[in-house]
Amino acid sequence: RIAELEELIKNAIIMSDDEASKGVVSIGSTVVIEYKDGTKKTYDIVGSNEVDPLKGKISDLSPIGSALIGHEAGDIVYIYAPSGEKEVTVVSIERTKK
Asked: Angle 68-4-44 (CA atoms, 0-180°, nearest 5)?
């Protein structure tokens, strides 16, 4: 466990609030997306060690998270998941509140 924690610390990237608030989806963003049927979902994009799907915290490496990374509000994004391709619109992006 110590080796795992040392590896996490060694590879950690510290982001300033300025970097995360440029209106682009990144780790630390809370993103609202809308599916074609009008359903809206809110997700917090987190690192893989913070994932909690029941609380809406998804990894940047998950199918939804990786598809959203780098997009801005208003963008149409295609998510490729095991259940098939989904088209969503990024409604809003905010810095995740602690």
From this structure: 25
Please answer whether residues 3 and 18 qualify as being in contact, where contact means their C-beta atoms are separated by less than 8 angstroms. Answer: no
DSSP state, residue 62: S
pLDDT of residue 78: 96
- Where b means 16+ CB within 10 Å and e means fewer, 74-93 reads eeebebeeeeeebebbbeeb
Amino acid at 91: V
Task: Determine the pLDDT at residue 44.
Answer: 96
3-state secondary structure (DSSP) of residue 6: helix
Q: What does R_g of the chain's alpha carbons equal in angstroms?
A: 14
Query: CA-CA distance, 2 to 12, in Å (whole number)?
Result: 15
